[in-house]
Amino acid sequence: MPRHMRAVALTLAILAVLIPVSILAIPSAKYYQEDGEIFDDWDICRTDAVGEDGFFRISATGFHPIIVGESLGQNADQAYRIGQQFAAEYQDINQRAEEIFAFAQDRIRYTSDDSLFGFAEFAQNADELAQIIEDKGVAHGDCEDYAVLLAVMYKGAGLRSAIVLAPEHAAALVYLPGYREANQSLSVDGEAGWIWAEATGGNNPLGWMPEEFMGTELEVYEVEDEAIIRGEPPDKPSVEITPNTGSGGIHISPFFVVIALLFLISLFRRRR
Fold it and tell me: What topology is assigned to 31-222 in CATH?
């Protein structure tokens, strides 16, 4: 290979390593934007929990965390299978529930949506988190992301689960009647035995319910193992959603990128 071509190849290789992943990323085919909000290919709004197309369908009469249906029933995938694996490994349901809780607590780092995605709200579904955990060992998310992943994994493990909304907060519940390690056992529709699963803290155990939510009005939705139906792909341009986890490569100034490109141009000019 001629010397100048070797220099060009070396420069391009260096740029490929140094330019941030966000510059090289391929736009996702899963999301589109409408009226400033981000929707997925189930037509669920990922950046708003409220309304008929919101990821939690919050209304004046209650809520329905529709986003869990992307990972249940015929849509069941990685998160559900993780739950099944725990069910096969742990026959005791209390230990099974504790191990699933520890999995979420250990493998997700609490990160605000604004820091991670640049939106005040951005919900991830259970399989998206499970895929990141499988690929990288650790995922990032906030309270609703923990809740959704736990609810789906518990269903996969053969346990009843629910999502609970507290003031400015979301968590999962798991049905464990007789579980003695909880600081509070809740009743849902008159049925006692529901345990709070608050995995956002690094040290709190399964069953620990924050005191600030005791005695407050809570909204609870028990999760059913039902899928939501994916519609026709929207005829709209896809948008790129790139999480900012701080591990997207070495970020260099655009100034140095320009210098490298000028270097390439000068090489070609000298060869004319």
Answer: C8orf32 fold (3.10.620)
